[in-house]
Write a structure and sequence with these properties.
single chain, 393 residues, alpha/beta, 7-stranded mixed sheet, 3-stranded antiparallel sheet, 11 helices, 39% helix, binds 4'-deoxy-4'-aminopyridoxal-5'-phosphate
Length: 393
């Protein structure tokens, strides 16, 4: 009997469904609780309590001990901008040098580029073939004008997790602030701002099954930073604007669930990930894993297939109702290969032949088997018509 076709979504890195428990927690704040947390009268009390309750849940997830160290924003892009520009402008009298890496997300690279036009000097530290930041080069890049280091905790595209504690130690020893873009890591692997010497940490809601349009920035007490949005002085004066209470409540709930389920879900996903990776490497000739083999996110498998294009693979798999991606959804509008894949030393055609699987809550072992059954045939067929493939294939 012919096997049933099934829908297999493995692009959780691009978009995650809202956890139904998160939606349930948010609902009353759309329909029943309408007050403004800044109001003095009694209707301000409930939203104020919920705001602080969510702040506590987000703080707990990342090991922050002081509630005021968590600032709610409109999302990770804003948090990255606030961290980088806010620290740069406020500390300009101390220096104008910022260090980051070649594999950061555009919401880190572009604020740095923009600061570069305003007289700041930016050093881009390279990574090795597996995507790990070169610590010697990082430390060697620090000079007496350096004010900030910005390194992502994990790369959502190649899955590699950075040695953040070591980087934090280097930053601390040199008296330089460390900002960490934690979007791909927080909620999936343990992150602890105190133990890892992190001064600023970007936290996403929509990357942990929470709502979009909200995010957070951890700012260690005493960090010199200035706002980039000015207004009524909410969020300790660092992020003005009426708080988006339903979304903040949702993010708090998402953080609470992520903390409670991180260990079990991490184990389940890394088992599925490893089954997928080894199944592909064993069954598809000339396939390779991008990123680090072990220091990688539990839900990430980035695989490279010689002689074919990732885009045609995506479309062919989509016809079998398997949704994957070729890299970051944020840069898919350009025809350029991923800057991350080029930074780990891949040639243009190798970068173009890469496929990104990001697994999530709804994926099962049967999903992985379905992909492992479909993929070798799709690769074979595309290679047969590829001008890049050797003739004997
Ligand atoms: N940093 C990283 C590592 C990301 O992957 C993303 C996109 N998910 C962002 C920052 C920006 O997040 P958002 O588009 O939700 O603002």
């Amino acid at each position: 009997m012919k096997k049933m076709k099934r829908r297999v979504y493995m692009d959780y890195g691009a978009a995650m469904p809202l956890d139904p428990r998160v939606l349930e927690a948010m609902m009353p704040y759309f329909t029943q609780v309408c007050g403004n947390p800044s109001s003095v009268h009694s209707l301000g009390r409930e939203p104020r309590r919920s705001l602080e309750d969510s702040r506590g849940k987000v703080a707990q997830l990342v090991g922050a001990r002081i509630l005021e160290e968590i600032i709610f924003t409109s999302g990770a892009t804003e948090s990255n901008n606030l961290a980088i520009k806010g620290v740069a402008y406020r500390n300009r009298n101390r220096g104008n040098h910022i260090i980051t890496t070649t594999i950061e997300h555009m919401s880190v690279l572009n604020p740095c580029k923009s600061l570069g036009k305003e007289g700041f000097e930016i050093t881009y530290v390279p990574v090795d073939h597996q995507g790990v930041v070169n610590l010697e080069k990082l430390e060697g890049a620090i000079n007496d004008r350096t004010i900030l280091i910005s390194v992502m905790y994990a790369n959502g595209e190649i899955g590699t997790i950075q040695p953040i504690k070591e980087i934090g130690k280097i930053a601390k020893d040199h008296g330089v602030y460390l900002h960490v873009d934690g979007v791909a890591a927080v909620g999936k692997v343990p992150v602890n701002v105190e133990e890892e010497y992190i001064d600023l940490l970007t936290i996403s809601s929509n990357d942990m099954y929470g709502p979009k349009g909200v995010g957070a920035l951890y700012i260690k007490r005493g960090t010199k930073i200035q706002p980039i949005i000015h207004g009524g002085g909410q969020e300790g004066g660092l992020r003005s604007g009426t708080e988006n209470i339903p979304a903040i409540v949702g993010m708090g709930k998402a953080a609470e669930i992520a903390q409670a389920e991180m260990e079990s879900e991490g184990k389940r996903l890394s088992h599925l990930r490893d089954r997928l990776i080894s199944g592909v490497l064993e069954n598809v000739k000339d396939s390779h894993l991008n990123g680090h083999p072990t220091k990688r996110l539990p839900n990430n498998a980035n695989l490279r297939f010689s002689y074919i294009e990732g885009e045609s693979l995506i479309l062919s798999l989509d016809m079998l109702d398997i949704q994957v991606s070729s890299g970051s959804a944020c840069t898919s509008k350009t025809l350029e290969p991923s800057h991350v894949l080029l930074a780990i030393g891949l040639a243009h055609e190798e970068a173009h032949g890469s496929l990104l699987f990001t697994l999530g809550k709804q994926n099962t072992e049967e999903d992985v088997d379905y992909v492992l059954e479909a993929l070798p045939n799709v690769v074979k067929r595309l290679r047969e018509i590829s001008p890049l493939a050797p003739k004997i294939r």
